[in-house]
Amino acid sequence: MFKRTKVTDGTATGQGPDAENWDGKEVGFRKKSKVPGVMITQYIEKLPEGKSHPDFTRKPIALTIQEGKFAFFKAIVTGDPKPTVVWSRNNGDVSDPARYQSKYDPNSNEHTFEMPHVKPDQADTYKCFAKNEYGQAMVTVVLNVIEVGFKMTKAPQQQAEVANCNFKKVLKRRSKVVPKAEEPEKKEGEIDPKFWELLMSADKKDYERICAEFGVTDFRWMLKKLNEMKREREEEQAEFVKNLSDLKPIHINADGTASFELEFDLLDPSSSIYLYKDGEMIPYTKELGDKMKHCLRKVGRKYIFSMRDLMPEDAGFYQLDVEDVNMFSTDFKMVDFLVKIQEVKAMEREDAVFECVISAPLSKLMWFGKNMPLEQGDKYDIEVSEDKLIHRLVVKDCMVVDKGIYAACAGIKSCNAWLVVEADKGAPKGKKTARKTTRAGGSGTDLQKVAQEQQQILDKEREERKEKIKAAREAAAEAAAAEEPEKTADSGAGKDKGAAVKVERIDKTSVAATTTVAGDSGSGHSAGKASGGAKQDGSHADAGGHSAGKASGGAKQDGSHADAGGGHSAGKASGGAKQDGSPADAGGGHSAGKASGGAKQDGSHADAGGGHSAGKASGGAKQDGSHADAGGGHSAGKASGGAKQDGSHADAGGGHSAGKASGGAKQDGSHADAGGGHSAGKASGGAKQDGSHADAGGGHSAGKASGGAKQDGSHADAGGGHSAGKASGGAKQDGSHADAGGGHSAEEASGGSRQDGSLADAGGGHSAGKASGGAKQDGSLADAGGGHSAEEASGGARQDEPLADAGGEPGITSGLSDIHAIRGQPAELTVKMNTDCDGAWFKDGEPLKSGGGISITKDANIHKLTIHSCRDTDSGLLRFVSGDLSTEGRITVGDVPEFDEDDLHKFSKPVIVRVGQNAAFKMPFQPQESLTVSWFKDGTELKDGGGVKIVREPNHSRLLLRDCLRSDSGEIKIQLKNPFGAVEATSQLIVLDRPGPPEGPVETVETTSSVIEIKWNPPKDDGGSAVTNYIIERQERGHSLWTKLGDVSAEKTSFRDRNVTHGKKYSYRIYAENPQGLSDSLETADSIMAGIMILSGPPGKPKVVSTSKTCINLTWTPPEDDKGVPIIGYQVEKRKKDTNQWLALNAINEPIEDVNYAVKDVTEGAEYEFRVSAINESGAGDASPPSAMACAKNPNMRPCFKDPEDFLVVRAGNSVRVKISYEAEPPPHITWLKDDEPIAPWINVINTEGMSQLVIPSSKRSDSAIYTIKAKNSVGEAFFDVEVRVTDEPKCPGPVELEQTVYGKVAVSWVPSPDQELDDRLYYVVSQHDSNTRMWKTVADRLFANTYTAHNILPGIEYHFRVYAKNDMGLSDPSQSPTWGANSNRVPISSNGVSSMEISFERPPSILVPLKVHTPPKGYQLYMTCAVRGCPTPNVSWYLNNTCINSDKNYYITNSCGVCSMYILRVRENDGGEYRVVAVNSLGKAECSTKLTVRD
Questions:
Q1: 994: nearest Cα among 1078, 935, 1066
Q2: CA separation (Å) from 120 to 65, 145, 586, 752?
Q3: How many CA atoms are closer than 13 Å to the CA of 854, on its beta-carbon side?
Q4: Of 1020, 1159, 1372, 1456, which residue is 20 to 30 A from 961 by alpha carbon distance?
């Protein structure tokens, strides 16, 4: 949301009372600042010297910023005395130091106004005042704040503001093109406002395209209205900008950004610029380094809007406004690929083709090859169809180095594919193979058909818009012709209709409100919570939904929950509580969690039976306090009965559970039977008030199945429990245990103890643990019969019979042993004697007495030592002494191992790895003695070795599982065990893998001439993560290449192949894909044919029209019998003479539509025959009879030479090579002549096909001549002359002589070079040097004579001349002339009888050019010049106000050849005055003056 500045009144910036009367004084004189937008008020008319009013050299800049960011304004002010700077805002104060902070930096002279964590209510117009005693300067700046998120208080606040008629705060800046969500319903045929906005910003060449897009056909009306709108828009734009030009629509750049640009000049630099997308304002930044999506940069006059990280939702209508006036509009469209480029396999020297179809016309795609942009050229051809929907890239003459990934990009959409180039194995080694004329690749799809379908869609949309506009205009014309009463009637009817619509909407709302009651939510297949609805009687409907969440019964007004049955759940299945205290049966719930009954008003829970749920299926609570039965629940959680008010639990039977299946507690103290529960947890009976437990029988459990305790001390039978835990009988008050029979257990199956001391029979227990009889009080052990055990099966000891017979003397029947006690817990040591006698206790040799946390008791012959709370000091050696008898044992106090809570929480998080990776677990713990660390996986202890590595350190242990497999997923547990106890921590290992192959077989749903549809089933194993999609590949029968057709989402397990050829057979294979990769493929068992094959008859015999060495032209007639199926085109095949293989010249999917064809894939001189087949939708039919043999050769022609050169220059000693290319048929006889004479024997002639070459190995000057080539065959002959010139660098000319015959001219002559007679192309070059310039310059070139006349030869200057000889090979060494300028070389000039007299040049100074008047501005530079003449040279002095300034460093004074100059770098006020120049020599004096005025 965008928070714009609130405009409170119509006062212009800086003209409010705050601005002018900031300090309470009256306004003074308005002054203009050099900085636009600054208003200056000067208090006095004339300022004192050196003083100034305040002014801004840098004003604050308007800011648009996101809520919560750091906002600040900066300003620099000047003035003498130093101004005071104060900040304010239009709609509020800035006194809160937590929100507004003013700072000043004396080093940079910057005043800063900071707003940390800016909020939307701080969006306003801010003012900065700079004031001193001579005036004040004021400037305004706007802050816009972009709101983040939805504010709960915003809507009520806006409603309140509307109610208070504060409309200015409610209104926001909006674009003239409103957002789609707020668009009013368009009338039929109404033109979109975007149409006019686009036209006003578009070039005239784009008018037709825009009109076609929006369906406008009346161009005359459009142009008339457009001109009117343009005039209005230009008048609005002129208020804010000028020179608006160079509008460039939005386009996508090579770096992946989109941008548009325009040029204009802002009349007011502080004007705000806004950007809109589809009518909604969008935030932007002016900094390139910022991370915002949109950016607006200014480069000179150019404004560039750019957008990065393009997404499909960025498509839309973009506008740029200055204040409230639109400057530019452009439409940004996204295109998609209907057909993507496919992988191409090409042979070396073959052309490769990538082609695609896009969804909207586009003149050009961006093609990339191996991450480099590709352009049209010798290597690549980029082709675009007429409708601009089909785009092709042709990689010509493929080589192995061209292999790689090629991509086509259309905006943010792109597709890529591999180019695989295979070497030509049949090519001869060391030789380059000939380029092939065939093309490889293509999409394998009828691109033209796809493009036509897309074009039809676009045309249809365009026509619909046209029809709507036409209908709207007709309706408007009819409405205009209607009478006024009819209009009134229509208006009234419209109001009634609007009211009716309003009433209808209200009615619909009412219906929706009154009918919103929750019915039964049964059988809901959901991944969430499936619960019953609330009925008016307070009850919930049955939640029998298959759910991964929670399936629970509802609450009825009688307090009961409906049955939560049939829910497949991973939660808990338990019974409910009834008012008689018993929970209902929690049976039949197949669940990995908890399935429980509900609570009824009688206190009971409803049955939570049969609930198949992944969540929690629980019974309801009844008002009588009971829980309904939670029976029959198959669960991995807990299946338990409920509590009845009589204290009993209902039966928790039949629950197949990995948790706990237990009976309930009844008020008489009994537990209901927990029978029949198949559980990995504990299945136990309940406790009845008479102390008995209900039978815990029939429970198949991996936990403990035990009977209950009855008040008579007996336990109910724990029989029939198949358990990996403990199955034991209960304890009855008479001391007996119920029979623990029939329990199949991996633990202990034992009888109970009765008060008469006997244990119940522990018979029939199949156990890997201990099966023993019980001890009866008469000292006898019950029979331990029938126990199949790997441990001990023994009888019991009867207390009525002594174990040892000592002849009546005292003896110890049960002595002390070493024990381990837990710190803080009680410990008891017991010694039994055979007679009643006294004894004493000792610890570490010291006697012990009761007290201090220790109790010593004696009960007949039993002596007990009890430690109430064990401490470290209690550890030691305890000894009991009775007379001469003694027994001793050591007590050790310690703690059970424990884990740190943070470490335990961290360890409990699942470890997720991929197949083949290592999984590591680490658990820290406190170092302890006698600590055993064990690791388990799914209950099985892991041992170090193989792929398991266990590291035990004093303070931690690590488990490493190498090269994990999918089957390694499961529960990982660490156990710490010491003599005091054990503690465990669990975690989960999840191994991710690619999915298994889709389930077959592949079914053919449909097959026609144009479509094949197939179907398959999802894979059994998804690899630990959900399948994302399926990839389908196809292979045409007879081909080895598999082509990817596309992919479909995981929810869809079928695919329609629309790119098939009638009569062809195809095989398909399907891959499942998840984030880990692709599965193995599922392939069709047999090929699938597309439709039924009907082939055409053979065409007529091909005829050879013409031949050449590169082409053979053919023609043929269509077949007489086309079998009733239209012919699409033809396929041409060739066969070389003396071979049996026919080679196709074009693919079946690229038929030749005409009945003639130019065969270019021929070898010169070879003979071929051709045949033609007609192609229809079923494929290629029978071939025609072969044509007559045709030879690929040219027709006879007269010899002719191709672009020969007629002149050749060679340095002597080098070889001469004259190459002449020709054309002739038959091959001509070649003859070479030299100057019309036969060539010498040492000259070589090399003749090849189409070229003849003359070679002279080592040339001499005598080889220069005109060579003639003569080519003659049976048709005619041809001649051509080539001039060959063999030369060398020339020798230098002879001596150079100088002679002056005329004043100012010197004749230069020299002896010719010895090579002049040998080389008629030799010429001379003359260079001149004088003592003034001291540089050599060329004064004559291409002289074929031996003389040259030098001009402008001045006396007193020395001259030198050099003469070079030059030919086609270069320059010779120079010949140097004598020095010219000595008196001996001058020719005396006669005076013709006139006597000479002595002349004097001395004269007094004079001013040739006087000084000029200057009026420079202050701070500018200044030049003053004048010209002085005199002999001897006069001395020049400069004066300012009669003061000599020659030595003043503020003036730079020079005198060069009489031109006197003075330079002032920066003019000051004290530089004004009268300047005078005085020139003096021995003959006199001259002077001139001027006045300098310095402007402000």
A1: 1078
A2: 10, 5, 59, 79
A3: 18
A4: 1020
Neighbours of 490 (CB within 10 A): 12
Region of residue 731 (phi > 0: left; psi between -120 and 50: alpha; otherwise: beta)? beta
Distance separating alpha carbons of residues 774 and 797, to the nearest angstrom: 8
Between the alpha carbon of residue 1215 and those of residues 1232, 1258, 1259, 1264, 1282, the distances in Å are 17, 5, 6, 12, 16
Residue 81 preceded by cis peptide, ω within 30: yes
Report the number of secondary-structure helices (H) and strands (E) in the chain.
9, 115
Dist. CA 145–CA 120, nearest whole Å = 5
* Residue 1481 neighbours by CB under 8 Å, 6+ apart: 1404, 1405, 1430, 1431, 1432, 1433, 1434, 1435
Cα 519 off chain centre by: 46
3-class secondary structure for 1069-1081? EEEEEECCEECCC
d(CA 620, CA 562): 6
pLDDT of residue 183: 57
Residue 438 has phi, psi (to 5 degrees) of -85, 160
The residue ranges of DSSP E strands in 1344-1483, in sequence order, are 1347-1350, 1359-1367, 1370-1371, 1375-1376, 1403-1409, 1422-1431, 1435-1440, 1443-1444, 1452-1456, 1459-1464, 1473-1481
Segment (H or E) for 157: helix 154-163
d(CA 246, CA 875): 97
Place of tokens 């007609």: 1174
Spell out the residues 6+ positions from residue 1453 whose beta carbon is closer than 8 angstroms to its own.
1438, 1445, 1446, 1460, 1461, 1462, 1463
Q: Taking the chain, what is the end-to-end CA distance rounded to the nearest angstrom?
A: 51
CB distance 424 to 349 below 8 Å: yes
| 8 Å CB contact between 1300 and 1386 | yes
- Mean pLDDT, contiguous 10-residue spans, the chain (1496 residues): 39 37 53 86 87 91 88 93 92 89 90 91 92 92 78 45 42 54 57 80 80 77 86 86 84 76 86 83 67 79 83 80 85 81 88 88 83 87 87 90 88 83 74 72 73 78 70 70 52 38 33 32 34 37 35 37 35 36 37 36 36 35 37 35 37 36 37 36 36 36 36 37 36 37 35 36 35 36 35 35 49 88 90 88 88 88 90 88 88 88 89 90 86 91 87 89 88 91 92 90 88 92 89 90 91 91 87 91 89 84 90 93 87 92 91 93 91 87 92 86 89 90 89 91 89 91 90 91 88 90 87 86 91 89 90 88 90 90 52 56 90 90 92 92 90 90 91 93 92 90
Spatial CB neighbours of 592, under 8 Å, sequence gap ≥ 6: 569, 570, 571, 614, 635, 636, 637, 658
CB 733 within 8 A of CB 710: yes
User: What's the pTM value of the predicted model, to 2 decimals?
Assistant: 0.29
Among candidates 158, 128, 139, 138, which has minimal Cα distance to 6? 158
Provide the Cα torsion 864, 869, 873, 875; round to 10°: 50
Q: Which residue has the tokens 């027994």?
A: 887
| DSSP-based three-state secondary structure for 817 | coil
pLDDT at residue number 188: 52
